[in-house]
Amino acid sequence: MRPRSAKILATIGPASRAPDMMRLLHEVGVDAFRLNFSHGSHEDHAASFKTIRAIEKELGTPITIVADMQGPKLRCGEFEGGSIELRYGEIIEIRKGSTAGKDGQIIMPHQELMDALTEGSILKFDDGKLQVTVASNDGKVIKAKVDVPGVLSDRKGINVVNTKLPMSAMTEKDKKDMAFALEQGADYIALSFVQSAQDVMDARKIIGDKAGIMAKIEKPSALQELDNILKISDAAMVARGDLGVELPLEQVPVVQRQIIRKGRALGKPVIVATHMLESMIDSPTPTRAEASDVATAIYQGADAVMLSAETAVGRHPATAVAIMDRIISSAESDPEFWNYFKQIRLPYDATPEDAISQSVRGIAETLNAKAVLGYTKTGSTAQRISRERPPCKVVGLTPDIRTARRLALSWGLVPIVLKDPLDFNDMLHSIQNVAKEKAGLQSGDVVMISAGVPFGRPGTTNTLNISKIE
After folding, report:
1. Helix, strand or coil for residue 85?
2. For residues 114 and 125, what is the distance between their CA atoms, to the nearest angstrom?
3. Which among 408, 419, 348 is positioned nearest to 382, based on CA atoms?
4. Separation of alpha carbons 233 and 242, rounded Å
């Protein structure tokens, strides 16, 4: 049992792929693992799946696996001599083709860009280090003015700032990777470069209910459809890397807070990612600003924070996890942390589930309850309780290991696999055993028990029982 409520998602890579290291990362604080399909082979990822499930079985703790798709990466072509210099104010040409570019000319292999770019469109290269603005596009040649000069080398990435591109969030590579990840038993598929709700619907046709869909919000165009995207997704990630390139930097913290609040209102987990403890790729300690950044995400109510290169290729993966664990715990121990959640008014549906989840916080505070234990088939009831951010443990009891694994990524949720009770008395008896053995509760602790009667039917939560651990 971890004393904190927010979760840690860590990326697996060369620095953390060894089974002993993965086990250590889980022990020091990792609740979920991210497999980045932009790197590594299917054989590498299959080995990681096998190791994670072995750790899960050994420790009896459900662990979330997020398979992160690469998405449509836009890159410029190659250049004669390996690079060109973009000079401030210079008018350059951009053409589609496969030949090498030269001074004053960039070759791109993407017809979608040629079709979509218009006067005023902004292109950024190499993670935003260079920038040009389109002056004209006749369908064959794009002329653009250099705004931010520098050296542009072969195959650097391209970001389009203010233009929606006519392309899917899934490439053929993504579809193959997705099929492989589903076969291996991924709990979430993270969909990169989502631009619209249609992108999520297209992915749903492939994924179905085999895994949850995590929409990565990294395109400004996605913000225009944010509500619809969140409603049909199962989780969201604030992917601040590309988002910070395509949005003005000062808007990224505002957008982060907006996504967290909207996700919480819908009861959907939100993960804050990218550059959280970036300096720890090399350094054994983070900067003060990084520690503050992690704490800010926690104060805003994020379900989880993510480590990327810090655990994938960094020199101190376990230390990075341990420090992130300490930062989260420190923020959550601040009395003001809980006051923030009381101030936010959540929307409620006229359902027994929402009536029960809404009452949980007040009961927990009045009776100093140590936990709310909710029987759940699909996880939806446990998610609704989690979004209340009650000042106690939220234990999700489910007969389905797949549901338990998904719940492991949600704020405050302790997932436990437990068969449905036969009747009410059997439920109370089961709770007594589970509470002590797996939920860390003690005799005399007040708990709330949420369930649906009759048992075993999804969507029938209609009972809230207050009890004491004997």
Report:
1. strand
2. 16
3. 408
4. 20
In a domain, 341, yes or no: no
264 close to 229: Cβ distance less than 8 angstroms: no
Nearest to 409 by CA among 261, 260, 305: 305
Residue found by looking up tokens 């436990």 in the block: 416
pTM for the whole structure: 0.93
Start-to-end C-alpha separation, the chain: 20
Q: Are 100 and 150 contacting, i.e. CB atoms less than 8 angstroms apart?
A: no
pLDDT tens, residue by residue, 45-90: 999 999 999 999 999 999 999 999 999 988 999 999 999 999 999 9
Domain end among 333, 362, 393: 333
Residue 97 one-letter amino acid: G
- Asked if the structure places residue 1 within a domain, the reply is no
Locate tokens 């649906």: which residue? 452
Asked whether residue 323 falls in the same domain as residue 433, the answer is no
> In angstroms, rounded to a whole number, what is the distance separating the alpha carbons of residues 274 and 281?
12
Contact of 294 with 328, CB cutoff 8 Å? yes
pLDDT digits (tens, 9 = 90+) for 96-125: 988 999 999 999 888 888 899 999 999 999
The CA-CA-CA angle for residues 467, 469, 470, to 5°, reads 120
CB atoms within 10 A of CB 29: 22
188's enclosing H/E stretch is strand 188-191
If one counts the domains in the chain, the total is 3
Q: In this structure, what CATH number is given to the domain that contains residue 200?
A: 3.20.20.60
Q: Is residue 2 part of a domain?
A: no
**208 and 87 inside one domain:** no
